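hiii so um. not sure if this is the right channel but i have a protein structure encoded as tokens and i wanna go backwards to a sequence. like what aa goes where. can anyone help
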């Protein structure tokens, strides 16, 4: 019966015509996404959404601005700037296809981030009066309303709550956030973000000031020799992430041609993420034509489990809705001081980064075999040297870092581009099992930057114009035990082969196969524990078609096979259809997404992306048997007012309870509403 409803929804979607498409760059994220990088892409989606809402003037664009777009290679960035230098300012976005190496698909991704503006880059002297008169401002608010009652919001007697205080959430079930943004030219930015998660009190109990989380920033850039100044909440990334990285990723699913792009220094913290940011001041000052000096200071109260003045674990999810969450809130603090000196030459780039941070309590997690080399202590410091050398068609780049104990980590990359459409990449990494850096994040299989060595080989090419191929293999080795791996000296391999077809403006297709093999603990039916190879295979197919202008139909098929070697493998299948477009004669955009899924177990779960409200990344995972349906409507009035609403509904055919614990829902249906209002002036 539910399968019939799904088919009916797809047929209805195909019958609706002239309904508008969402931004094309979102499709690039879907194409490159791997489930292991899901957390990173949630943050990246918000960052790219911010850039798309505040596009660059293509006729005054800089190399640094183009490098913020991960789908552009270094060579293509060079060709864009050369085209503008040789032929002068563009008068239409169609000119993008005249740039060497620019294909149809990349043009579609890029057009959402640029506009055609005047070529005169001369600016009047900065003045407060001009800033107050010619600025851009916006206010966005979002409200999520669940349509089911979860166990954490049910009524319980005082006796039960006294015995089990974490059985009930402290606040109501609504999620709400508020964002204010101010911008003057590309020089002054300010913002304030307030957020209340579902289950957190609002103007009651311990949140008498309203929202559970407030973040704000003042960000200045390109004011004389002052390259950047960040006040309030900000992020910092230098080199290739072995010492400090809070703003970019070198995940395996990234475009190969942009992997050797280093951190951008200080950036404003605009997201609702309550964990990955610094709080204080950071500045970059231009010492000379190619020399930059950066320094920062941060002081933060942080969440974690503290016992007898020892920090047992860090809490970074930002939830404060249960009694146990409150016990961990602001339980210790951290001071951080960092600096970077960098040289940006035409053929050589290099720099030195150093970071020192101090906790007011001892970090000392409970000992386990796998966490023997985890960070312990009050004081931590790291220093690293990053480098990048251009040698005609070759680029050699990397970083080498050391911690307070003398443990070393190093990452080195060599890329070769025989032409603008082809890139070969070789990456070697070695992270000592004793290496400790609390703010490091780089190319790695582990969540922590330690206890790993590996070799990565990749090829990306669009040598044949309509076709684009991406293949890579990653071979990794872990000297010490890991979480859920009770054995030393384990190995693994991951491989991906992706073929994309984009002949013209109306049709694109993608086929992607990925294979991953690594060691993992296994418990047999007689409670015996072993370490066995765990294998996960994924086949993803996607077809996008634009039958008429401002209409997009997209079909997604995904197959998963996962499980332990020589054990029963779980299998999962998903078939999805998405329609996006604009209703004729009305300023309304709409989308309809429907999916049917069938999986054997949690390991064979499948993923499905559906359009959502601005800044909300909606990638859902499903396991079991069921269907998903979502409708998204967006109304725009004279470009200054936008109202958006989304309704989503999931039906399971194999259970009468959804989730567990405080999130448990009685029944087989789960539904929710999202509302968003945006005002610009």
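sure thing!! here u go:
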């Amino acid at each position: 019966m539910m399968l019939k409803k799904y088919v009916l929804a797809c047929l209805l979607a195909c019958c609706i015509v002239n309904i508008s498409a969402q931004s094309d760059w979102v499709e690039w994220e879907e194409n490159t996404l791997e489930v292991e990088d899901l957390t990173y892409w949630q943050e990246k989606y918000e960052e790219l959404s911010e850039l798309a809402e505040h596009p660059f003037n293509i006729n005054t664009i800089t190399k640094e601005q183009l490098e913020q777009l991960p789908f552009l290679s270094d060579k293509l960035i060079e060709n864009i700037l050369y085209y503008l230098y040789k032929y002068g300012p563009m008068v239409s976005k169609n000119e993008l296809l005249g740039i060497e190496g620019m294909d149809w698909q990349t043009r579609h991704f890029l057009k959402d981030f640029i506009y055609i503006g005047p070529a005169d880059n001369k600016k009047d002297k900065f003045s407060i009066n001009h800033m107050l008169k010619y600025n851009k401002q916006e206010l966005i608010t979002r409200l999520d309303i669940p349509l089911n009652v979860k166990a954490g919001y049910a009524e319980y007697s005082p006796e039960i709550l006294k015995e089990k205080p974490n059985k009930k959430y402290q606040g109501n079930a609504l999620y709400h956030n508020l964002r204010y943004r101010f911008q003057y030219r590309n020089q002054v930015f300010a913002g304030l973000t307030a957020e209340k998660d579902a289950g957190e009190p609002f103007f009651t109990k311990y949140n008498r000031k309203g929202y559970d989380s407030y973040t704000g920033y003042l960000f200045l850039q390109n004011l004389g020799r002052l390259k950047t100044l960040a006040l309030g909440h900000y992020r910092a990334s230098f080199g290739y992430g072995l010492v400090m990285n809070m703003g970019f990723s070198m995940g395996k699913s990234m475009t190969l041609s942009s992997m050797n792009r280093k951190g951008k220094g200080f950036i404003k913290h605009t997201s609702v993420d309550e964990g990955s940011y610094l709080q204080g001041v950071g500045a970059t000052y231009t010492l000379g034509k190619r020399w930059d000096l950066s320094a920062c200071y941060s002081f933060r109260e942080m969440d974690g489990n503290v016992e007898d003045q020892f920090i047992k674990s860090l809490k970074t999810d930002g939830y404060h809705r249960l009694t146990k969450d409150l016990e961990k809130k602001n339980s210790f603090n951290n001071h951080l001081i960092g600096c970077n000196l960098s040289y940006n030459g035409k053929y050589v780039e290099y720099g030195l980064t150093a970071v020192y941070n101090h906790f007011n309590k001892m970090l000392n997690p409970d000992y386990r075999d796998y966490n023997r080399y985890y960070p312990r202590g009050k004081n931590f410091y790291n220093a690293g040297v990053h480098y990048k050398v251009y040698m005609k068609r070759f680029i050699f780049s990397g970083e080498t870092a050391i911690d307070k104990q003398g443990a070393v980590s190093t990452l080195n990359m060599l890329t070769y581009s025989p032409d603008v459409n082809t890139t070969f990449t070789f990456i070697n990494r070695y992270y000592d099992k004793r290496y400790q850096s609390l703010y490091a994040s780089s190319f790695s299989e582990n969540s922590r930057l330690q206890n790993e060595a590996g070799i990565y080989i990749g090829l990306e090419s669009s040598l044949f114009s309509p076709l684009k191929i991406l293949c890579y293999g990653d071979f990794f080795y872990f000297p010490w035990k890991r979480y859920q791996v009770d054995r030393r000296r384990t190995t693994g391999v991951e491989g991906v082969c992706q073929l994309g077809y984009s002949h013209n403006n109306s049709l694109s297709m993608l086929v992607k196969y990925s294979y991953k093999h690594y060691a993992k603990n296994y418990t047999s039916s007689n409670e015996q524990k072993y370490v066995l190879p765990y294998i996960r295979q994924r086949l993803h197919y996607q077809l996008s078609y634009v039958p008429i202008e401002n209409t997009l139909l997209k079909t997604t098929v995904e197959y998963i096979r996962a499980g332990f070697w020589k054990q029963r493998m779980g299998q999962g299948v998903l078939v999805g259809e998405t329609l996006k477009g604009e209703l004729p004669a009305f300023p309304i955009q709409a989308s309809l997404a429907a999916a049917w899924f069938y999986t054997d177990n949690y390991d064979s779960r499948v993923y499905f992306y559906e359009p959502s409200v601005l800044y909300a990344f909606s990638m859902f995972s499903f396991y079991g048997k069921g269907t998903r349906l979502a409708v998204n409507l967006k109304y725009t009035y004279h470009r200054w007012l936008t109202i958006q609403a989304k309704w989503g509904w999931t039906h399971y055919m194999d259970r009468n309870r959804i989730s567990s614990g405080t999130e448990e829902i009685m029944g087989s249906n789960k539904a929710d509403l999202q509302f968003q209002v945006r005002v610009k002036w």
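oh and The domain at 33-118 is CATH 1.10.150 (DNA polymerase; domain 1).
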